[in-house]
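Example 315.
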Amino acid sequence: MNVLITGGAGFIGSHLAKYLIKEKHSVTVIDNMTSYYDVKRKGDHIDQVKKLGDFTLHQFDLLNEEKTMKHFKEHSYDAVIHLAALPGVQYSLLNPHEYIDQDIKTTVNVLKASGEIGVSHFLFASSSSVYGNADNGPVKEEDANGKVCSPYAAAKYGAESFCHAYQSLYGYKLSILRFFTVYGPWGRPDMAIPLFIKKFLNDQPIEIFGREQSRDFSFIDDIVKGISLTLKRQSSQSEIFNLGSGTPVSLDELITILQEYFPEGKLFERPHRAGDVKHTWSNISKAQEMLGYTPDIGINEGIRRTVEWAKNYYR
Ligand SMILES: NC(=O)c1ccc[n+]([C@@H]2O[C@H](COP(=O)([O-])OP(=O)(O)OC[C@H]3O[C@@H](n4cnc5c(N)ncnc54)[C@H](O)[C@@H]3O)[C@@H](O)[C@H]2O)c1
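Predicted structure in complex with nicotinamide-adenine-dinucleotide:
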């Protein structure tokens, strides 16, 4: 299949590109290497992808509607996996307008251009943040109601709505994937697990913002497998899928696991931060039934692999 991955130089995108190249798809990446985190890291991601085989990289800003349309008119794709976005909850509190640009306007440009050239399947990277606080057990796809807690989440929920609008205008198959806190080797450096591991490796204390928290941490290999299964799904219906582990891990449990590797690791406890939800927990039964998705890597093995990678990368 001819597959375009937007944001393919990022954490999830580069893992996905490697996986799809191995699966013998023809892979193209569009990424403008934003400086939300170290641009050198994105270069390292691309170097990893190059080792797996041939793929094409185009570097430009998808916020530019004209360039985006021109690119699509000059290329042909069977499926578009739209991962390009500005991530991060806390940054969105300080820079809400950037999220309207990077997470909504950019998505509209890619949706429209995909429709114009007759892309068959559009996959959109959404987020568990669209559920707001999930304090009452695992969330199902139909539980999202727009009552979110941060501008990032609002942008993702808004972008989902644009996906439905353009699906009805152009008729492509639409798959909205809501990822739950993804971690693993090459993990995004602003996220908790990579940040904690890097600090501990440098003998620095970590900061935690309220102890009463849990996350449905999802190992990157499982997420990438879930995306690949979605790419292969047969039905032409549009669908939303939760892609998570289905098993929440409390902050205390996470710290206990990390302290097995860093027994001297210290932490500072700060008050809960506005914008952050306290708990996330996915109900993954729809993805299990319709895609055959089963997460394989539990938190202990996932952290073991992530620490091993970080020790090699940062040494
Ligand atoms: N990592 C997670 O836990 C998680 C959870 C839920 C949802 N998501 C979503 O999954 C997607 C990928 O996340 P990630 O963690 O890999 O983030 P990432 O920041 O590593 O990757 C995003 C990539 O998109 C590129 N990009 C951003 N704006 C662009 C633009 N205008 N034009 C071209 N390229 C642009 C960036 O340079 C970056 O390489 C995002 O949409 C994110 O919101 C991630």
